[in-house]
Amino acid sequence: MNDVTYDAVSEMVASVREVTKVYRIGGEDVRALAGVSIDFFHGDFVAIMGTSGSGKSTLLNLLGCLDRPTTGQYFLGGRDIATLDDESLSRVRGRYLGFVFQSYNLIQQLSVVENIMVPLAYQRPQRPGARDLCVRLAELVGLSGRLGHRPNQLSGGQQQRVAIARALVNNPHVILADEPTGNLDTATSMEIMDLLDALNRAGRTIVMVTHEPDIAARCKKVISLRDGRVESVRHASECAP
Amino acid sequence: MNPIHQIGLGIRSLMLHKLRSSLAVLGILIGVTAVIWLVAMGEGVSHQAQEQIKNLGATSIIVQTVKPSDEANPNAGSRSGISYGLLREDYNRLISNVPTITKAVPMREITREVRRDQAAVSGQVIGCTPEYFDINRMHIAQGRSLTDSDMRDLDNVVVLAHEVAAKLFPILEPIGRSVQIGVEFYVVIGVASPRTASAAIGGSFAGRQYDRDVYIPLSTFRRRIGDQVITIRGGTFQNETIELNQITTVVDSIDSVDASADVIRELLRRYHKTIDYAIVVPKELLEQAETMQMMFNLLLLIIAGISLLVGGIGIMNIMLATVTERTREIGIRRALGATKREIIQQFLWETVVLSGIGGLLGVVIGFLCGPTVKAVRSGIETFFPEVWSTLPPTIHALEPRLAPWSIVAAFCISVGVGVVFGIYPAQRAANMDPIQALRHE
Fold first, then answer.
1. Residue A138 · residue A169 · CB < 8 Å
2. How far is it, in rounded angstroms, from Cα A228 to Cα A218?
3. How far apart are CA B185 and CA B441, in angstroms?
4. pLDDT digits over B252-269, tens only?
5. Most A-contacting residue of B2, B333, B334, B336 (CB-CB within 10 A), to test interface
6. ipTM higher than the 0.85 cut
7. Phi/psi zone of residue B282: left (φ > 0), alpha (ψ -120 to 50 degrees), beta?
8. Within the 274-333 window of chain B, which residues sit less than 8 Å (CB to CB) from chain A?
9. Pick from B330, B326, B221, B265: nearest CA to B90
């Protein structure tokens, strides 16, 4: 394990070290993560699995810089960001991370292209040619004919494609996907997985939370969590049916 | 994001709830319109008042005869009649004892029917000296004014007010023709130019309508009409003796007005047992009017403040609902890189757009103040003439004057209200936990 890490230092895009997360609910401490260490490498396609309460959502929130660990370190792009303040975390999210959610989370009053542009609005300095980039991304995910549509005029699969294009627009280090196929039927799920697969082959690093084994089977690596600890790390070939 | 982008985004977010946003806009609109209209009305009224007072002359002091109340007059109702008011002796005393007086113009008036063939007008017969015209800033439109020789010769000559001339001589040229006043005939020598009524501020006695006046020499008045006025009221004779109705004095400078007024007051008090006169000082009225204007403006500001406050609360209410409703959007934006500050900015822009639109529309409607007042006035005049005739002349002649400062202030305050009342909802939006916000249904 160690020698792999050393060999791939330049390739490592994100890394959590001994992170714990303790929530205080009703005067009682609840340990959601009890010391998790995982490295994510460039080009990884990782599925995080686990039962409800295993800590997988908490881990994804930490990876997404939406939350801070109680203890431990989180390196993203070579920086320890566990201690950053709220504003810096916002900047990190906008610059280095792409998000894909189960319920797509598009902004209803904006068109397809405008939704894809949202992360760019919070970039400093502003990038020129933002609109052209977004149109190209919309075409890349197969929505070339629907640039001006509103989210409620699109099917679930199409909305998720918009969300994926949005996750690509800032050229992120890691794409974080939270049950991206959870609201879709099997056929559409497979289409979305095909798209993510294609992105991964093109060099994108993707970390996905899922509870569906056949979705996880399409990833390169599957990390199972149990009671806030890493239970197993398997490569895709090991868990194929 | 640049402001244009922010405004565009704000408008589109507000368009999600057109009715709700329109109502919030309406709240601000009413507030802004109220400010502009109220100030315009106030300015109109006070301008009118100040103009009228200025027409009386800032350096003049007007002494008038007032009928004393019955309690103060033991002779009231007796057959011998009562005698009150200013005396010719008062006039002499004023000129000889008050050194600052440069001019004093005595006047006597009575209501009499003025006839020309079949046409008749209930006119106000004014006995005066030639200076009366100057001192009241009246001009002669046709013919000539009264002269000293008219006074000396006790001539039966008359100068008609413009309206009287128009009624009695609708076609013919009035100059040189005769009119009948009471039982006497007078030759028309001149017609005065139209003159707007002068002030009646704060219950003063200085208010005058000039449109029913006919002017004859004071000496002729005394000879032909005399000091006694006999009226029959309720079957009993009332016999009143009045020598002069008014003495208009002009003092040498505006600084000596107050002191001269005190001297005149003292002088009259010494020779009159009852208070059968009143002293009107236009300068004091002007100062009073200015003070009243300030009070009025303050009151308007308070009213305007309240209405804008109410509008602001409306906006806050709507923004709080909006923030709750768009919790998910806030979570998405935070996840995609928006800082708290950027979320605050977004929602503040939205409230500013809301209140700014309200402000702009309010200004537009504010500009309609003049035409609206005119329309309402002619509406009342046409459809409710009885109501119209009971309204005071101030209302008849009211011309709202749009105050540029009020337009600028109202608009700025409305935008300010948007910012102030937008801060709390925007902060609430920004302080949401992104994780909770993303989970919000």
1. no
2. 24
3. 96
4. 888 888 899 999 989 899
5. B336
6. yes
7. alpha
8. 328-329, 331-333
9. B265
